[in-house]
Amino acid sequence: MNASKPVQWKRNLWALWLGNFVTGAGSSMSLPFLPLFISEMENYSKAELSILSGVAFAVTFLSQAIVSPLWGKLADRTGRKPMLMRAAVGMTITATLTGLSPNVWILIALRLIQGAFSGYINNAYALMASEVPMNQSGRVMGTLTTGNVGGQLIGPIIGGFLAGILGYRIPFYCFGGLMLIASLSTLFFVKEDFHPTTSQDKSESPFAHIKNPSIVWTMIISSMLIQAATTSINPILSLFIKELMHGSGNVAFVSGVIAALPGIATIFTAPQLGALGDKIGPQKVLIVGLIFCGVVFFPMFFVTTVIQLGILRFLVGISDAALLPVTQTVMTLNTPSEVVSRIFSYNQSFQAIGSVIGPLLASAVASALDYRYVFLMTVLLVLINLVVVTRAYRKDRRTTQSMTK
User: Fold this and answer.
1) Residue 83 is part of which domain span?
2) Which of 109, 290, 303, 314 has the most CB within a 10 Å radius?
């Protein structure tokens, strides 16, 4: 190994941390207020607003799910930095144009295009997974996660403040500006020592190179279910808060604060839980995180005040710190560097599918029943995920024991 490489991967980590931070800040600065932005475009009924908000959220991830494997295959041929630049520049343009949307259909079309060019955070994980020493992968993935989550912590508060004073279009312009910062940070500070493998059959499945494909597939499916659960409340969160506040007060600012609360817990606990996973095994952290997630989401059905909702949302942040970073770590430990981008692109694609399923299910539940029932639906998704993960690890343990006999 080149003596300068350990120094360079640390430099890349902090440059990508900044990119993740501004990406998280920009997206969270605008998305919590998307339903309120749509409600100002026309006088929609509660059911219409729920459905349109769900579609506007989900459509970005639908296009992302379709194109992610193609970008991942290209990344394994050309390197991860070009994919980071593609995502950062693409979101710079589409996020800015979204703020100019004259109606909900143009907004939905722009978010569809944005999804096709997104993927900065996933490519940041893939680049670091190809460079970081295996014995530090949990801590590094946790640290990288704090960049995204830290942005998600600050973004909604700033976005809510700006939206409450200047209108709901301004956060989208800020999103575009922040992605320009991510573009420049990546261009000038991220260095990738990329050497494409010429012997690899590009038509061959990347899973053929993995020592434990069933566990990797389980992590990919788990990521999808985690994403479905955590994004399911996005289309209705600000609308539910407006209902709890009886339509009075600065709903945008309060929604921003409530949306940011999970980030406070996650940013402090993700590195520690990642390091804990390095010591005791990531599967234990993942299973406990899923149980805790279900326990926290269930009481949200009964909340009657914004304060109660805020406390539970804070606790959700702890479970968040134990979920997606851990699945990324397991994939890193089981995936060789020559196919890591394709594996992570599959993961991004499945996460995007989760981000389609969650909001659309939530919108359907909210329009047919009530906002509160979305939280029960989320608990069901978490329980399904817990069953999938525990069964996979039991099967893997039995297989390992039979091979050692």
Assistant:
1) 5-192+208-404
2) 290
